[in-house]
Amino acid sequence: MASRRVPLEPRGVPALLLLLLLLLLLGPRPAASHGGKYSREKNQPEPPLKREPGEEFRMEKLNQLWEKARRLHLAPVKLAELHADLKMQEREELALKKLKVEGLDEDGEKEARLRRSLSVILAKYGLDGRKDARQVDSNSLGDGSQEDSLGDPRLEKLWHKAKTSGKFSSEELDRLWREFVHHKEKVHEYNVLLETLSRTEDIHENVISPSDLSSIKGEVLHSRHAELKEQLRSINQGLGRLRRVSHQGFDSEAEFEEPRVIDLWDLAKSANLTEKELESFREELKHFEAKIEKHNHYQKQLEISHEKLKHAESTGDGERVSRSREKHALLEGKTKELGYTVKKHLQDLSSRISRARHNEL
């Protein structure tokens, strides 16, 4: 009896193709619910987070913080500023999520930086449960009241001298006060960051073995201390400027007036930029300062609108209240939008200068 043989090329079908078909028919099939490393299920990107109707943010924890802030009855301008900060936080956290999917941020430094950023936001707006923080930051974020405490005897003394010197017009005093408030906020942010880093190091020392701790301090904590060092340098430089301006008055030939822009310009001049790059950066800062001035205008209008709304509500006139609420909502939306735009632009400009200074080092 002749043995059965499978023809290698029946009816012109290549042998290799036939072999592949047999493997597909007879080979084991993976369970549908247990996709392998390279399966579609494992490599399918997660669907983007969707914002539920009525929610401000796509991330639930940020919505919870937002609702908590609303319950604290922060001033409208402060609330709009918080909204912009949370938008920035969300933008960074969603970008980090994408990095982690791609296997980046292995040392966890970006994630740690975002935790520090959130800690600063919580402290800045009194959302960390501390009464002192809530008291410091409960005032409006426009020019602020010039009777507010600056929280530092040195600043209080400098401000009193400037205010009583007779060297400044009312408009110049408003401008100088903004610089003092900006400096106070930088010091507050530095203190929050310092506390957060100290707490982090304590955790590392208590949980991680000494051999592991040395590598962590060498790789991760170094960058955090560099961040602190840079902030402290900026604070000292700002205090020197406040002393100079308080005693001598404003320089009529000064490039900029807005404190954040002044900080950026001082950093740019000390960075490794060519004359052409520096001139280009100067022009961009002019546009940025105009954007800040527009935002400041809307902040003031929002404060006025809030006062008008409260007055309308006290009259009990339903039609008037409805009109005031509509106008207030429009101003609030525009102020939030501009606040986010300003913060994003500030972050982009700061990153560029930071990279230039890092390359120089």
Which descriptors apply to this entry?
361 residues, mainly alpha, 72% helix, globular
How would you concisely characterize the structure shown here?
This protein has 12 helices and no strands.
Strand content: under 5%
Mean pLDDT: 79
Q: Which residue ranges are poorly predicted, with pLDDT under 50 across at least 5 consecutive positions?
A: 30-35, 133-143, 203-217
The value of Rg in angstroms is 29 Å
Q: Would you count the extended β strands for me?
A: 0
Describe this structure in words.
The chain has 12 helices and no strands. It is an all-alpha fold and 361 residues long. The chain starts with 14 loop residues before the first helix and ends with a helix. The model is unreliable at 30-35, 133-143 and 203-217 (pLDDT under 50).
Topology (elements, then pairings):
Layout: H1 15-26, H2 40-43, H3 60-71, H4 76-101, H5 109-124, H6 131-136, H7 153-164, H8 170-207, H9 210-248, H10 259-269, H11 275-315, H12 318-360
Helix pairs in contact: 3-4, 4-5, 4-12, 5-8, 7-8, 7-9, 8-9, 10-11, 10-12, 11-12
